[in-house]
Amino acid sequence: xxxxxxxxxxxxxxxxxxxxxxxxxxxxxxxxxxxxxxxxxxxxxxxxxxxxxxxxxxxxxxxxxxxxxxxxxxxxxxxxxxxxxxxxxxxxxxxxxxxxxxxxxxxxxxxxxxxxxxxxxxxxxxxxxxxxxxxxxxxxxxxxxxxxxxxxxxxxxxxxxxxxxxxxxxxxxxxxxxxxxxxxxxxxxxxxxxxxxxxxxxxxxxxxxxxxxxxxxxxxxxxxxxxxxxxxxxxxxxxxxxxx
Length: 244
Known about the structure:
The structure is a single chain. With about 240 residues, the chain is α+β, with helices and mostly antiparallel strands. About 25% of the residues lie in helices and about 30% in strands. It has helices spanning about 30-45, 70-85, 110-115, 120-130, 220-235; strands spanning about 10-15, 20, 50-55, 60-65, 95-100, 130-135, 145, 160-165, 170-175, 175-180, 185, 190-195, 215-220, 240. The protein has a seven-stranded mixed barrel. The chain has a four-stranded antiparallel sheet with strand order 1-2-4-3. It is globular. The protein starts with 9 loop residues before the first strand and ends with a strand.
């Protein structure tokens, strides 16, 4: 999908060696497409002095060497590049990720169903039916934020975030769903767990998902989860790469 071109982005200094190129103040599908398009454009037309880029939902963080290029000079180049027709994106990879929903693996499923006035089975069916896009990776290694959550599953985050939630958690929060690779804190609602490691240091590739990838989920039972979890721990890529 091509990224629509519109108003110039805002340029915000981030310390003395980075620029935040902001396309929107809100989580916005159009803005995210523009972020990823600018990231691709920088990869195709490198700017001397740029050392790293970090795409997010609505902005691109551009790290640079201030000895090689100034904030103002880089800002002019980034603005011009952001206004060019977006380069064609490579065909998105599509992953099918297995998930065990509910029970000990998804301790919030029943509460989510009650909050949305439906049944746990219906929540699972709606979540599995979604066609998601990886909008960004962040927070902790491999944490994949997915856009495309059905509006009927939009739910405010928990009032009291948990200090620790399990690795592999599949959860929803606000207008998003996500894949949490490592154990850590979360204020999202836990629907299930996947054996898939989106980040694994000793594996090649270390990171499985990339911004722009497509994701669907498929239910598995607890026994299959345990089997695939052991395989994933040994370095196998349990997620299925689907034909594009």
